[in-house]
Amino acid sequence: xxxxxxxxxxxxxxxxxxxxxxxxxxxxxxxxxxxxxxxxxxxxxxxxxxxxxxxxxxxxxxxxxxxxxxxxxxxxxxxxxxxxxxxxxxxxxxxxxxxxxxxxxxxxxxxxxxxxxxxxxxxxxxxxxxxxxxxxxxxxxxxxxxxxxxxxxxxxxxxxxxxxxxxxxxxxxxxxxxxxxxxxxxxxxxxxxxxxxxxxxxxxxxxxxxxxxxxxxxxxxxxxxxxxxxxxxxxxxxxxxxxxxxxxxxxxxxxxxxxxxxxxxxxxxxxxxxxxxxxxxxxxxxxxxxx
Amino acid sequence: xxxxxxxxxxxxxxxxxxxxxxxxxxxxxxxxxxxxxxxxxxxxxxxxxxxxxxxxxxxxxxxxxxxxxxxxxxxxxxxxxxxxxxxxxxxxxxxxxxxxxxxxxxxxxxxxxxxxxxxxxxxxxxxxxxxxxxxxxxxxxxxxxxxxxxxxxxxxxxxxxxxxxxxxxxxxxxxxxxxxxxxxxxxxxxxxxxxxxxxxxxxxxxxxxxxxxxxxxxxxxxxxxxxxxxxxxxxxxxxxxxxxxxxxxxxxxxxxxxxxxxxxxxxxxxxxxxxxxxxxxxxxxxxxxxxxxxxxxxxxxxxxxxxxxxxxxxxxxxxxxxxxxxxxxxxxxxxxxxxxxxxxxxxxxxxxxxxxxxx
Lengths: 291, 359
Known about the structure:
The complex is a heterodimer of chains A (291) and B (359).
Chain A: H1 2-32, H2 39-55, H3 61-84, H4 92-113, E1 118-119, E2 128-131, E3 134-137, H5 138-160, H6 162-172, H7 184-209, E4 212-213, H8 217-232, H9 237-257, H10 263-277
Antiparallel strand pairs in A: 1-4, 2-3
Chain B: H1 2-31, H2 35-53, H3 58-83, H4 91-109, H5 115-138, H6 146-166, H7 185-203, H8 206-216, H9 218-223, H10 228-254, H11 264-277, H12 282-298, H13 306-320, H14 337-354
C-alpha cells in the first residue's frame, strides 16, 4: 500500500507536467483550431533555457523559471507571428505541416549547439521526508504545488479577465468577434505567450525532476501531452488538466505494476479504448456536422 | 529615373524570357502523353544496366533506391492524407509491420539459397501483413474524423513500436541485424511503378471518386450513395499495403531494423514529403519524395546545419506556396487516357451549352 501511495505521488508529479504542456496545445487549438506541433519542442527549449540560466548565469530556481518562461513565451509569440500568421487563411494542414517544420527546426537548431545530453545542476536543496513509509521530496511538492498554482492562475485569467473573455469569445466565433472590436492578432499573441510559457515552466520542472536533457526530449513528451489534451477534449482547458493527470497516472501505474516496457503500449491502448467510447474526449462536446 | 531604367530592364527581361522558356519546357514534359511509356521503358532498362555495368557508383545507386522507397511511401500516404483528406500520422507503423514480416521471412524462415528467388514474394508478404493491420486501423476511422483520427493513427504507430519492443523472438528493442541485401535497383523500380500505377488507377476508379468525395464532404457523399465505410476500408488497406512494401524494401537495403527506426520521426518525414509535393497529386508525391531525398543528400556538406536548413525551407515553402509543389494538379501523362477524354468531353459540352445555340 505504501508502494501504491509512493507511485501516486510520482503520478501526480508527471501528470502535472503533462497537464501544463497539454494546456498549451489546447489553448492554441481552442483559438486557431490548429495543432501546434512545435509545442513539445518549445517545452524542450524551456528546459534548455533553464540549463543556460542555471549554468552560465548561475541563477537560483525562481529567476531561472521566470527567465525560461519569459524567453520561451516571447519565442512562441515570434513563431506565431513569423510562421503561423501568414497561413491563418490557408488550408489547415499547411499550418500543421508548418508547425511540424518549426518543431524540427527547434530540435535540430538546439542539436547544433548541444549535440550531447546535458546535466542540470541541482537548483533546489532536496530534502526528503518520510511519512508512514512514503518518501516525499521537497522537489516533488514544489513541482506539484507550482503547477497546480499555475493552472489555477490560468483558469482565473481565462475566466475572470478581459483578455480571457476575449479568448473565449474568439474561440466561439473567429469571424464576428473581431468586428466587435476585439483585436484578434493581439489575443492570438497573448494565447501563444500564455500557452508556451506554461510549456516552458513544465520544461523547467521536468528538467529538475529528470536532470538529463537532450534536444529530442520534446517529441515524446509533446505527443503524450497532446494525447492528454485529446483525452480531456481538445480545446477545453479543464479537460486538458484532467487529461494530463489521467495519462500521468496511467503511465506510472503501468510501469509500477507491470513490466515497464509495457508502459507505452498500455497507455496508448487505453487511449484508443477511451476514444471509442468518448470520441470527443472526457469534457469535449461533439460538434454537430452540417451538410 | 528614366535613364536608369533602360540598362537595368534588359537583364530583367532576359531573366523573364528564361523563365518563360523553362515554363514552356515544363509544360511540354508535363503535357506530353508519350512521356509515360518512355519513362517506363527507359527507366526499367537503366535500372538493369546501371548496377550491371556500374554506370554510377554505389552511393548514388543507394540514393536512387531510397528515392524509390520514399516515392512508394509518399504516394501511399497521399491516398489517405491527400485524396481522402484525413490526417494520418502513423505511416511508419505500417512500414514497420512490412519490414518485420519480410525480415522474419528472410532471416529465419527461408533457406539462404532461395532468398533472391523468393524476394518478390517476401515483399508481397510484408505488404499483406501491413494491409491486414491497416484493415484494423480503418475500423476506428468509420466513426472518428480529423484530429481524433490523427490521434488513433499516432497511437497505432506507438503501439506497433511498443509491441515489437516487447517480443523477444524478433529481437525486442535490439531489432533484427544481418538482413541480406536483396533490394536491387530493378526491384525498387518495379515496386515503385506498381505502387504509382495501382494508386493512380484506384484514385481514378469509382472507389477513388468515393475517396475524394469523402474529402470534400463526408455526409454529402454518404447521401449520394457512396458506401463511405467500404471506401475508407479499401483506401486504408491499399495505403498500408504499399507502406508495408516500402518497409520490406527498406529493411532489405538498410540490412538492419529496430523499433527505433520506425518511430514518429519517420512518420514525420513521410508527412513532410507528402505536403512538400502537394496533396491530392501523384506527380506531387513523386516530385516531393525525390526533392526531399536529394536535398538531404546535397546538403550533407553542411553537416549538422543540414537538418536546420531542411525544416526552414519547408516552413518557407508552406508560407509562400501552401499547396506544395504540385497541390491538386497532375502531369497530364499521369492521368488515365479515358479520364482525359472525359475531361475534354465535358469541357466541350459546357462550351456548346454556354455558347450560341447551334442545333
